[in-house]
Amino acid sequence: MTAEMYLPSFYVKQKFAMTTNRYELVAAGPDGSEGQLMGLAQQKRLAFKEEVTFYADESKARAVFSFKARKRVDLNAGYDVLDEAQQQIGFFRKDFGASLLRSTFHVEGPGYTGTGQERSQLTALIRRFADVPFLSIHFDFTAPDGAPLMSVERQFQLRDRYTVTVPDQRVDFRVAAAIAVGLDALMQR
User: Fold this and answer.
1) SS3 178
2) Residues 6+ positions from 86 with CB-CB distance below 8 Å
3) What global pTM score does this model have?
4) What pLDDT digit, counting tens, does each position of 88-130 carry?
5) Is the distance from CB of 102 to CB of 81 less than 8 angstroms?
6) CB under 8 Å to 90, separation ≥6 — which residues?
């Protein structure tokens, strides 16, 4: 089964804004070049209940999907990924206990479940004890049988840029994009 909106790879690029976290989602070409703008994400900083809205383009006239926290404050925070009609298309949550030494997230969508974890234990430990803002962060999400669902790789740059690869066609682009943006926005706390 292929997801309604499947995209095998794309980039998430953080953009500078004073009062919000902003991200551009750009399709990746077969040669690694940047392709079509797939959306723009925006998160208000210091919100009591986390929510990130994804828009069709720079005009922000049409919200096309979002992710929203189920609760205001929760160490094992869960986030529903919602389509344009506010119907749930996926879910992810941080596993607080498992994240003490290496950040760990769980993901669910139609026909799949999985767990994502920081690829490097050493990098995870350095991030916890030293403030290195441009440290590369890589997450691998796998199904219970070990099959890869998706990966998110932060590039070594001053402004955050992620390469998202989705080998499992059941993973909807909107769920993968929500997780990729969520990793950046939510791990800053």
Assistant:
1) helix
2) none
3) 0.89
4) 999 999 888 777 778 889 999 999 999 999 886 666 666 667 7
5) no
6) 80, 81, 107, 108, 109, 110, 172, 174, 175, 178
